[in-house]
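Batch manifest line 334
LIGAND: thymidine-5'-diphosphate
JOB: complex structure
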Amino acid sequence: MKRYLVTGGAGFIGSNYIHYLLQKYGNEVHITNLDKLTYAGNLENLSAIEKESNYRFIKGDICDKDLVATLMPDIDIVVNFAAESHVDRSIGSPDDFIQTDVYGAFVLLEAARKSGVGKFIQISTDEVYGSILKGSFKETDVLEPSSPYSASKAGADRLAYSYYKTYGLPVVITRCSNNYGPYQYPEKLIPLFVTNAIEDKSLPIYGDGKNVRDWIYVVDHCDAIDFLISRGEDGEVYNVGGGNEMTNLDITDLILQELGKPASLKTFIADRLGHDRRYSVETEKIQQLGWQPSFSFVEAIKSTIQWYRENTAWWEKIKTGEYLEYYKSHYQHV
Ligand code: NAD
Ligand code: TYD
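JOB STATUS: finished
ARTIFACT:
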């Protein structure tokens, strides 16, 4: 039985990953989910599996050295999702990003080194490369992160590498593009626009809406991580992408069309500071190993939109309290 420490497992990708692991491996895995339950952590994402005997939840901070040191000796594989993850919040208030994304990764790496875990997967992001107008970034390209979020992630990415190079810790680093799917906190583009459109609220598009992102279905990302745990080479970085680049305007139009809502909901607002124009990753390296995404964008985006339609209680509960405070101050001109 493989014993996993999944950090940030109550968030969007982490909770999808826990579902993925339990569906695929059942009792062959034991999962410890360490999550601080920040505004983005939500145990409802895991209510269907919370009573499984091979799953346990621990509410705690990855920066807590003592706690992490007590957990690590029972662990074979660490998958570090825990992070502050929203670019806009990192622009307004970078502190927690430096603390969790960089220092928290250090605490995990140090404990993993001391207890000798079998694999450490650092979930990095394509945003560490910065923006590219033409072509796509390879794993060997220079990192030029441009937001406090992506700079923090770049710090953790290279720190993880240093633990491979210096101490021989079996680290694998993934740099994935923008995920979409169920359980994504409705501050990110797709769930924000889908839920706002359902509520007939405006869709706040930054700048001219022509920024480009590559979109991957979250289950494909989970599958790539699983693939790299067994097939990835220690010390290596792997780009993971959906092969589906779209402008924000394209995404917005698709959402409005799918929900049968009017174009008048589109509202252009001031651009994000330092807004990266385009993200694009070259995925030849992971393809050569034998992995590629299996979900079609057309179908997976439809089923994602349908999920938000059917699970209004999940996001209506989120869109209150702290969320409304953030929303009002961030989108004050909408
Ligand atoms: P998320 O914000 O939905 O979830 C983050 C989770 O981490 C939450 O459950 C939160 O409670 C937890 N957390 C935050 N600080 C913590 C701390 N100090 N200790 C323990 N837990 C803490 O984020 P997400 O979109 O699921 O992203 C997960 C990871 O994937 C992040 O590392 C992110 O950088 C990376 N990533 C995300 C995307 C994307 O499109 N969402 C793409 C590439 C990489
Ligand atoms: P986001 O989901 O925040 O992901 P990231 O910035 O990490 O790629 O944003 C995706 C794109 O959508 C990005 O170009 C910013 C844009 N965007 C808007 O135009 N309006 C919004 O309200 C949000 C949240 C994002």
